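DUF3298 domain-containing protein, Aquitalea palustris. Tokens?
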Amino acid sequence: MLPRLAGLLLWMLSLAVQAAPLLLQGHIGNAAVVMELNIGQGGEVDGRYFYRKYHQDLALSGKRMADGSLQLGENLQYDEQRNDLTLQPQDGGWRGQWHGPKAARSLPVTLAPYEPAQWPASTDAALKPIRQRSGYDYTRLAGLSLKPGKRERMQGHTLQWWDEPVSKIRLFRVLDGYPDASLQRLNQLLAERQWQEVASYFDCQLGGTHSAGADFEQTITPHLLSSKLLSVSIFTSYYCGGAHPDFADNPLTIDVATGQAVQLEDLLWLGKGKPQLGRQAGGERKDYQYEEKVLAPWLASTMARLHPADTKPGNDDDCDYRDPQVWQFVSWYATPQGLYLGPSFARVARACEYPEWSVLPWSLVKQHPGARPDLLP
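Tokens:
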């Protein structure tokens, strides 16, 4: 995963990992809501809530007063201060008034702790990781449904696309061409990834409430469905608040036999001995010594040898594909021709990213096999 996209995703998970957020459910007026609040030791408060009918987040920020009450503003811009919601602790929950930034009248608010036993049931096993991470996100996603889209044939397989109407996030499932057990594992991982992307869409929208809005659009391109590997590009263009919009590809490559995600060093390894790159529990790399000192220099020289015309320095010095630094953090996926590896550039040269030509043929990859040579064609 590219560092800038990893940073975005870590930010998207930040609400879930803060210490002891309050998860509440109740009503504003007659409308059912779910709310999550983080109350800091210094009295600062931030959070979010959504109306069950509409699913979209409204950001909350404010402070806890000396009497224990909360005064919160809704969807405040960075330079705004406003009190739209006042909550008083009462009987283990909260009661108060909402009058909103443009409301003609105030509405009563009643909130109570939202315990896991009260969360909605779901027959979709792909929501389990979301449920384990965040009851708030799980409750919202359990209220959504996927709609069947088009079917298409690709590389001997039938793909059924599924669309989530609110976020417009779509991903396919594989209907045939693999053993039933493999199909079940593949589609489970694809479904989990789709729901994760839907959750990321809502988190991005939340980030945009403090600025000029948000944008989160994806292009999904399956590249390889072989007997051993399924590989798909998941390209996201996003603006979640902050100074600039951005884009990144965060592909997914799956071992067909096991349904497990595949790492680049499973297929390609240039170090000494067997691949032994330390990873954290979530799969993130602990350090990038191998990428900086081994992988990047090799890719820079190899791409220059394989694609001399495309990597030849031109009038635009920004696109220096012979610089090892641009190959240190690559996005990659598998294709019938070989491994596609996309370089990464500084913001001023982002147009240089994702060139069509940067493919290592399988014949070359086989000369440098990774931890899973059995996955190579």
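Residues 185 and 259 are 5 Å apart (CA to CA).
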